[in-house]
Design a protein that fits this description.
The complex is a heterodimer of chains A (about 240) and B (about 90).
Chain A (H helix, E strand, L loop, with lengths): L6 H8 L13 H5 L2 H21 L8 H21 L1 H24 L12 H23 L15 H41 L5 H31 L4
Chain B lengths: L2 H13 L2 H23 L7 H41 L1
The chains are: A mainly alpha (about 240), B mainly alpha (about 90).
Chain lengths: ~240, ~90
């Protein structure tokens, strides 16, 4: 298959930095120059700079930029508060909102030729998932102390031998499904677009897939955030 | 984004993950069973832990499915209660 043209990798190569040609690099510097790393930094810089440039000083009567951000942040805040309560939403808003913005932008950036989605690498999505997974257990332990284990025990004692493995399996399945779903959807989109560009790019064949790609990107960012919120809320509430 | 489209995306987010979670639960359950059979007990217990793991995995898949349904039901009940309260007022 034809190698996708990634402009950051080309610039880095011109600068004399070792950009790995396979999926993973060997030395530390090669690992840092992998496309998904460089594009993660691009997304981070993009989010930071755009927020900085459009927001400026906060005013009572919002201008164009502030209006947009108020809509985005306000919408997310309402959504979190609906699903996990006002108190938790206030506490975890910075973390989950950052995930939402990062994943949405990282998914959408792959639709532009010359860019790739950092989320189309399992490393990125697994890192995000591990953060969510560990923090939802941390919330559980902080909220209930050691009796958090009752979450895994089911309602009655004689069902414990049956329900304990089931609960553990379904909890580990969260780890797998959360990371691989995001990775799989975005990688499928990227691969499909690359193949269609190669086969019939001149006839606008990738166009319908690009439209679907926008939907998939938004929905997958939403799924990730929704599940994060649900897991946090479940860890916090009382065992059945 | 219009209201209809927003709702559509929310519904997709709500139910779009069910299939994959179901499969992930089965894969984890059966993988754990195979690991126990082949690596821990060196094939002496084969195929029993594989089957037990598969059964537990399927049960775990259904559990995640029911969790989604219960959550929906709870939300619907809440909405109904709120609506009735509004009605009384």
């Amino acid at each position: 298959m034809e190698h996708p043209i990634l402009f950051i990798s080309i610039i880095l190569e011109k600068l004399g930095l070792p950009v790995p040609h396979g999926p993973v690099g060997h030395t530390f510097l090669e690992k840092l120059c992998e496309p998904y790393m460089t594009y993660t930094w691009l997304v981070m810089a993009f989010l930071f700079l755009v927020a900085r440039l459009t927001l400026g000083n906060l005013e009572m009567i919002p201008g164009k930029g502030q209006n947009f951000w108020e809509l985005v942040i306000g919408g997310m805040d309402d959504f979190f508060a609906d699903n996990m309560g006002r108190e938790m939403a206030d506490k975890f808003f910075p973390m989950i909102a950052t995930f939402a913005l990062y994943i949405a932008v990282a998914n959408l950036i792959g639709l532009i030729p010359g860019f790739m989605s950092p989320t189309s690498s399992l490393n990125t999505t697994l890192a995000l998932t591990l953060i969510v997974w560990f923090s939802h257990h941390l919330i559980g332990f902080r909220e209930h102390g050691l009796s958090y284990y009752k979450h895994f025990m089911g309602p009655v004692w004689w069902l414990v031998p049956l329900l304990l493995p089931i609960e553990i399996i379904s909890n580990l399945a969260r780890l797998l499904s959360l990371s691989i779903r995001l990775f799989g959807n975005i990688m499928a989109k990227e691969t499909l677009l690359a193949i269609l560009f190669m086969l019939a790019g001149g006839f606008f064949a990738p166009l319908p897939i690009m439209i679907l790609g926008v939907l998939v990107s938004v929905v997958q960012a939403m799924v990730f955030v929704l599940l994060t919120v649900v897991y946090f809320a479940q860890a916090k509430e009382h065992a059945h | 984004m219009g209201d209809v489209k927003k709702e559509f995306v929310q519904l997709l987010a709500n139910y779009g993950h069910i299939g994959f979670t179901f499969v992930a639960a089965i894969v984890i359950g059966m993988g754990g069973g195979i690991y126990l059979d082949q690596k821990v007990f060196d094939g002496r217990t084969s195929p029993w832990f594989t089957f037990i793991g598969l059964a537990l995995g399927i049960a775990a898949g259904y559990k995640t499915l029911f969790e989604v349904i219960w959550r929906d039901k709870k939300a619907a009940d809440q909405q109904k209660a709120d609506a009735e309260k509004d009605h009384e007022d």
